[in-house]
Design brief:
Strand content: 5-15%
Shape: globular
Strand order of the largest sheet: 2-1-3-8-7-4-5-6
Helix content: 25-40%
Low-confidence stretches: none
Bound molecules: zinc ion
């Protein structure tokens, strides 16, 4: 039985990019409510911790001082002519009041999880508001202002730890890969819909790292329509072997659930069954696990998928039907999907063949069996 810390606070869903932006704070609120109503947060091995705001110098573990100051100014409503240079503006990364505090709290949450793990206060920490894997040292990107994963991993390697980072978001984990591209202390593995058809347009097999980091960046770009079985096959071919060979002290994962077939922003075809099987694979990879949230833009799917992640982390079994109060407020009936995506045999076979080629090339580049 592992001791699990769930990092949550109502502050996390108070502010956001606005009502028309896909990254809706409801995703977090509903996930919290679902777990609460399932009784999951009262289990004897579970602790709910409210993150406290970290010091600004901890943001500087990854971000530049200039960028940190700029985000603070814009968050207060100051108009910066350089906003575009920092990645802000209408579209993916609009500026909003309180953006600094809101984004900083998500980093605080992931860093608190990292610290509790290192202090042996828990075995698993779930910072579900984190996983903001696209942000760079001095720019916002893809809905991400501060990169909590990069900050937490920087802190962990300063403690002398070897970190394996596995990113199962449908988008390439470019910000984290780039942050440690020349390091052999961090292994980054990202499975994502191929950059040929999806933002951010990177994450190809030949991105393997540079200098000391050569061989420590692994990318598995997936074709559209990749389903549960095909995805899991690819994962099992590469990830356990890479992680075992690296021998990490800690596993950091980005658990974006925008791989789901109902996700409006991408074109993979996973169900919650495949996602749950993936969480189980990750659980087996390390006894010390910092789990971060990530993408997922169908608000009916995200809370269910992350509740399943939590069931795996904390060794709990939940009822098949959603709690009554939750159903009355948000609709839906089942915790797990009872429907499947409609993919023809022909498309499935074609997708599988394309992915086999990708996996063979990943194995060749990283000398895997
Ligand atoms: Zn994503």
């Amino acid at each position: 039985m592992r001791n699990v810390v769930f990092l949550s606070s109502p502050e996390l869903w108070k502010r956001g990019f606005g009502p028309n932006h896909p990254l809706k704070p409801d995703r977090l609120q509903r996930t919290y409510e679902l777990l609460d109503e399932l009784g999951a947060l009262k289990a004897p091995n579970v602790q709910v911790i409210e993150p406290r705001t970290i010091e600004e110098n901890e943001l500087a573990l990854f971000h530049t001082q200039e960028y940190i100051s700029a985000v603070r100014s814009m968050s207060k409503g100051e108009r910066l002519v350089r906003a575009y240079r920092f990645g802000f503006g209408p579209g993916d990364n609009p500026i909003f009041a309180g953006m600094f505090e809101s984004s900083q709290l998500k980093v605080s949450s992931s860093l608190k999880g990292a610290k509790m793990l290192v202090n042996n206060e828990c075995d698993v920490a779930f910072s579900y508001s984190g996983g903001l894997h696209h942000a760079g040292p001095d720019f916002a990107s893809g809905f991400c202002v501060f990169n909590d994963a990069a900050v937490a991993i920087h802190w962990l390697i300063r403690q002398g730890l070897r970190v394996a980072y596995v990113d199962i978001d449908v988008h390439h984990g470019d910000g984290v890969q780039n942050a440690f591209y020349d390091s052999d202390k961090v292994l980054t593995i990202s499975l994502h819909q191929s950059g040929y058809t999806l933002f951010p347009g990177t994450g190809f097999v030949d991105e393997v790292g540079t200098g000391d980091g050569e061989g420590y960046s692994v990318n598995i770009p997936l074709p559209p329509n990749t389903d549960d079985d095909t995805y899991l096959w690819a994962f099992r071919q590469v990830v356990p072997q890479m992680v075992r060979r690296f021998k990490p002290d800690i596993l950091v994962t980005q658990l974006g659930v925008d791989t789901h077939y109902l996700d409006p922003l991408a074109s993979l075809a996973l169900t919650t069954h495949g996602q749950k099987a993936l969480f189980e694979e990750l659980y087996r990879l390390s006894p010390c696990w910092l789990a971060l949230g990530g993408g997922g833009y169908n608000v009916d799917v995200v809370p269910r998928a992350w509740a399943l992640a939590f069931s795996v982390m904390s060794n709990q079994t939940f009822p098949e039907e959603l709690p009554l109060g939750y159903r009355n407020r948000y609709g839906g009936k089942w915790l797990e999907d009872h429907e499947t995506p409609n993919i023809s045999h022909q498309v499935r076979d074609q997708t599988r063949r394309r992915l086999e080629e990708v996996v063979n090339s990943v194995k060749a580049r990283h000398a895997l069996e």
